[in-house]
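Lecture 7 notes: from sequence to structure.
We start with the chain below.
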Amino acid sequence: MDNRAFFFQDDKLLLPEDFPDSQMDMGISRELANDFNDDEPDTFEIQAIEIPSCAITGVSVSSGVALPAGWKAIPVRQVLAMLSSGMAEGRGGLGRLLRAFHIAQWRRNSRFCGSCGAKNKDVCGEPQRLCPVCGRHEFPRISPAVIIVIIDDDDRILLAHNKKFKAGVYSHISGFNEAGETLETTAIREIREEVNIEVQDLRYLRSQPWPFPNSLMLGFSARYLSGDIRVDGVEIEDARWFTKDNLPELPGEGSLSRFLIGQWLNGTLVSQCG
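Predicted structure tokens for the same chain:
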């Protein structure tokens, strides 16, 4: 990345207005930080995971700072959708962008020690903070969550509308891993709790970092076994079986949920599950 950095303000990526959309995951010159009237931008440097010799620089602009003329702010979720090809293997830049965004949010929320309240200090070269008073170490939080694509013997897919979704949007059953659970146990529990059915042939498919704010999504497939759909009414408002020619509005491109639906649509998921 050399002299390039990712600029963030809250949940948005900051870029010059004339910057090409196709290169949003490549970073921009870190000297552009001088364009902002921000007395305390949080600038950090971390190592890339897939290329250990590559440094990733992030710049977090304070929430109340107005964007300079000629700049734009794009929600990182929208960036993912615009760069949906990043779900394909080998899109390393997108991984660096997501890593920088995750770390930026963690730094904003970890300025003070969670045990004694003292101001944390950075650990050089590491995504880690250390309390100078009580010695508590803090690392970026990663919350594992499962997402399950469920199909039946008629090749229908079960999709549900969560109360948090935009009206009309349906996606898979999903939920966070609880203390003491395996991921498989989490998947079975979430399905039972949210739609009251039993499944079989549960299989892991793939994962995706999802820093909104700090998740790691782990995708599974499963086949319907028994039971009638009954939604919990707490998180899930509606759930039903859909065919390939009668689908509702789906999650945005770039998400693991949309990727899994695409696998089912093109028949790849069937070969993996069958």
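Points to note: The helical segments are 76-82, 92-109, 183-195, 256-265, 268-273. The radius of gyration is 21 Å.
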